Amino acid sequence: MKVKPHLWIVLAVLAVLHVMLLVPGFVAPYNPTEQDRGMPFAPPTAIHFRDQNGSWHLRPFIYAVVANDDGSYAEDPRQKYFFRAFPSGAPYKLAELVPCTVHLFGVDAGGKVLLMGTDRYGRDQFSRLLYGGQVSLFAGLLAALLSLSLGAIVGTISGFYGRWVDDGLMRIAELFLALPWLYLLFAVRAFLPLSASPASTFFLVVAIIGLVGWVRPARLVRGVVLSAKEQKYVLAARGFGASDLYLLRRHIAPQTYSVLLTQATLLIPQFILAEVTLSFLGLGVAEPVPSWGNMLSSLQQYHVMVSYWWMFLPGIALAFLFLGYFTVADALQAHVQSASA
Amino acid sequence: MRFLLGRLMRSGFLLVGVSLLSFLLLQLAPGDFFDEMKLDPQISPQTIAGLRTQFGLDRSLPVRYGLWLQSAARGDFGYSFAYNSPVAPLLKTRVRNTALLAGVSTLIAWLLALVIGVWSAMRAGHWDDRLCTGVMSISLALPDVLVALALLLVATRTGVFPVGGMVSTDFADLTLWQKARDIGAHMMLPVLALVFGLVPTLVRHVRSSVAEALSAPWVRAARAHGIAPGRLLLRHVLPVAANPLISLFGVSLATLLSVSLLIEIIMSWPGLGPFFLEAIMARDVYVVIGTVLLSTVFLVAGNLIADGLLFAADPRIRRS
Hints:
The complex is a heterodimer.
Chain A: H1 5-22, H2 24-27, E1 48-50, E2 56-67, E3 73-85, E4 88-94, E5 98-102, E6 105-107, H3 125-161, H4 163-177, H5 181-190, H6 198-212, H7 215-228, H8 232-239, H9 244-280, H10 292-296, H11 302-307, H12 313-340
Antiparallel strand pairs in A: 1-2, 2-3, 3-6, 4-5
Helix pairs in contact in A: 1-3, 1-12, 3-4, 3-6, 3-7, 3-9, 5-6, 6-9, 7-9, 9-12
Chain B: H1 2-28, H2 35-38, H3 45-55, H4 61-73, E1 79-80, E2 85-86, H5 87-122, H6 127-141, H7 144-158, H8 176-214, H9 217-224, H10 229-266, H11 272-282, H12 285-313, H13 315-319
Antiparallel strand pairs in B: 1-2
Helix pairs in contact in B: 1-12, 5-6, 5-8, 5-10, 5-12, 6-8, 7-8, 7-10, 8-10, 10-11, 10-12, 11-12
């Protein structure tokens, strides 16, 4: 497959985004749940190269930010904090396993750099964006894995064995398609416990999204299996006495991979959006655990929406992630079409 | 005719299936509406048990489904605990509002998509087609939540459209014409958000099916015979391209309803969306089931309309 140059850029950006979101503790300078009640809705810290005396610095720095009595913020030019690479800071666990205190960047001790400002509890929005991205991204990835495996299994059985098995399974699939997808998702959510610990809510949300979304991959896989099992070499292999399992594993399953891959690039963003929507409306991952959905939900309050633009940033991050996934999906689809034509 | 009848029968089965599925899910639900009352010391356990019996919550699942079917036959579709009223009358105004929103948005979105898509397909490869495809790809990636919130922000900052709700506070005093204008103004934001969510996908499909029809050998032959471009497009190309688009109509309605659920909640449009969320939060199960069923009815109706259009447009289906 020949990859166009612009696709390489998109793939590289996607890869960087994913690595950042998979090890948020390293990239994030602070603990995402650490509150600073004295600094609610602080704006993003300005980064300087030139100090007030007019002299330039090679190493960027920030000034201390102080809260005024009226709720606005101002810089205090007497206190200067330089950026540092790999400082020691808040402890976290790398990949949830290895205890670690080294971060990608930070500022001199005593200062606090807020790349994306703070939320209402004075929590660092940039750190929350990374940790929240991990939650949302993982929800999307796991749910896609779940519904793709389910879809692959159901689709293969349905296409390979045909007859009443196929009829029955496809009738059930139709039932799932008869509902607008978000209504279905909400309905299933409605019948499950509303409040639980953050970890179990996360897996609950993943399970619901994954179980609701299996129909489209199942139908596509079924179509591929239906045509694959009639191909001459498959019939020949069967004639030589190959077992069903061998046929499926050796000849039929490999043909479904391209469909599954294309579906994955479409389902992952859709499922990330599903998690975001659920959490946004208070039906998904709940505070204090950040997710892009519950971070955006503060915008439902009028004064937050109007006054603090940095609260929109999780939504913009989401758009970039989606753009990446859709570009890859388009390229894959074009490739599959040109290969089959 | 067999084709349409078959589709109608299938829709009926689907509705029964969805209601059964809802009741099966209901079995899984831990706790119910009256659980919160247990925390209130003013209400005795006997009262709660009495209420449970009165609403049939202590019966077995098949019995409850039977009772619900009876109530559906009476036109009540179960009983709302929170509103202390049958479900159907509660849903009526909300359905009307959602249908209004969905209808207007579908109409505008399809008109826009047809114009842009056909234009884009005819200019395939030119700079304006590329620009259009690029813009559509980017708007496809913008999440609905973000679009809706951004629209709200613009509206509050500039004050061009009223924000939230469906009517102004002095609605009752207005004349009929002013009332229509008032609702129209309130509809602007949710309709914009819905159209924005729907158009990119539609344009893509319109563009690809028109482009495919245009690239067929007979189009070149027709051009060579000197058939005028306008006539060629309207009389020959569009009918050929229409077939996949008609099937898309039903799917687009499903997408629209899903997006509408979210948009209605964010923009506080008094439709099914906020009502549904409220019922989920309160565990008002029969309202949840009623709403789910209604959304299915919407979808089934959309698909039936699409089938009817297909029946009218495609002689092959009429023959079979």
